[in-house]
Amino acid sequence: xxxxxxxxxxxxLPACVYWxxxxxxxxxxxxxxxxxxSEDVWLKSWNEQAAAINGSKIFKIHCTFTPTGRxxxxxxxxxxxxxxDCLPTSYIISRxxxxxxxxxxxxxxxxxxxxxxxxxxxxxLSDGWKPLCxxxxxxxxxxxxxxxxxxxPFEDPSVAPLLFRRLDQELYFLISFLVIIVDIIIxxxxxxx
Length: 193
Known about the structure:
- By secondary structure, the protein is mainly alpha-helical.
- The chain has helices spanning 19-25, 39-55, 57-65, 67-84, 97-114, 129-136, 161-191, and strands at 31-35, 120-124.
C-alpha cells in the first residue's frame, strides 16, 4: 500500500476492485459506493465509455506506438480481466452485457454486505452535495455539484489530464523522430545519387 500513502482518496477502476484490501490497510477510511438509478443506467454509461475508448483512432495509435500507451492498454486489459473475470471483448474495454450486469450487481451487493455500515455511503450522484458532505463531515460548497464525467475521457481530458498529456508528448516525439529519420534518408539518397 506504499504506492497510495500520499493520496487522500482513490476511485474507479482498479481501486474499486480492491476496496476490501484498501479498507483493511486503511480501516478508518470511508467507502463511497456510487450507485446508479438502475443497472440499465450504469450499463448505458459503461457502454458509452467503452464505445468512446474503443472507437478512438488516436487512442489506438497512442496504445500501439507509445510506451505509456502500450503500458496503459496492458493495464486496462488486466484490470478488465480481473474485474469481470473475462478477457475484453473489444479493444480494451469489455462489452459482454451478461458479464457486465452480473459483475455490477455482485460488486454492489458485496460492498453493501461487507463494508462497515458506519463507514459506507451508498451515493447517487443525483443526490448532490448534501449526503456526500454530511458523510465526509464537510461543509456544503457554494458551487453546484460537478458532473464532469458525463462522457468519454476524450470529450473531457480533465478526467485523466496527465495520462493524455503524456500520451500526446510521446506521440509528438515519435512523429518528430520519424520526420528527422525520413529527412536524413532523403538527404543521404539525394547526395549519393
